[in-house]
């Protein structure tokens, strides 16, 4: 393959100009895009948002058409996995129009997977449409099986409704993975129950270490529970067998012999998972973050709006990917009890 020239968005493949694929300076192919379609949410999880969040003015958000164009530009440049997230993706008005329109890339074979991460609150309403539009797997975030604790953690959520949403998704044949954030003093005594419940329903479970993103009302150090401790405790109860299973993400998986299910650990603070990073993230305003743990970002809204052709957009994407850092450096600043990064997870979608 020959480059047309160094700055061109195109390269020659067997003599034909094709769009330059996304490869970062560390030779990692960027094939996975996570898109936050809204910063809004119908929950206020204690580790994610403060109770009285200020959301972006609606006018700042990309329209559904712009989101489609942006995602499609990445697909044209080799992204084959797209995850919609948020905020809560399913509270964005008209979201199924976007899902339906993006599903054309599944039909064409350009996209291998269209998926989403959701809090489950709207799944009863949307499970069937997700299935019709080619979504096969979804991640549902659920930190506790106790209704009172669920209300305390999410502030506004209703466990029964989320459970009914999970039922609806499974009834449609969607494969569901549960994500639970491990929270000191909150759900640390429930991880065993969560494993047995998820695996009993044929769902993988991934436990996530709390990440220092954005100011929330409670101290990060108070919430932080190292997964090394969780894992050591689980090993007293279960036989955890390391397996090679990878989803292209940061989770390391084990097979739990007693339940026959898969358990993932995402440990951004205690281990680095950057060497195999294949992903980038876009906020609902069109800002591209090349790394979840760094502040460097590129504005794609401007080139998107500057012209109806994608030329500027492709160049902006190429320039940004050329700056993708090798890895991140999350730290909780213990002196000031402040997060290392001031943006919330609901901006970049986790
Ligand atoms: C920001 S949410 C967006 C999608 C959807 N609202 C949900 O909750 O699944 C994506 C994931 O990020 C996780 N999350 C949010 N804030 C976090 C933090 N500070 N540390 C670790 N995980 C976090 C949530 O638990 C959720 O699994
Ligand atoms: S974790 Fe998800 S559900 Fe909870 S407040 Fe953040 S965006 Fe909303």
Defining key terms:
350 residues; binds iron/sulfur cluster; binds S-adenosylmethionine; 12-stranded mixed β-sheet; globular; 3-stranded antiparallel β-sheet; alpha/beta
Describe the model:
This protein has 350 residues and is of the alpha/beta class. The protein contains eleven helices and 17 strands. The chain has helices spanning 64-76, 95-108, 123-132, 147-154, 159-171, 191-200, 220-223, 227-237, 301-306, 311-321, 345-348, and strands at residues 2-3, 10-13, 16-19, 32-36, 81-85, 113-118, 137-141, 175-182, 204-209, 240-242, 252-256, 261-266, 279-282, 287-289, 297-299, 332-333, 338-339. Strands 10-11-12-9-8-7-6-5-4-13-14-15 form a twelve-stranded mixed sheet. Helix 1 packs parallel to helix 2 (95-108) and helix 3 runs parallel beside helix 5 (159-171). It is globular. It starts with a strand and ends with a helix. 44% of the residues are buried. The structure holds S-adenosylmethionine and iron/sulfur cluster (SF4). Iron/sulfur cluster (SF4) binds at residues 41, 43-45, 48-49, 86-88, 119, 141, 346.
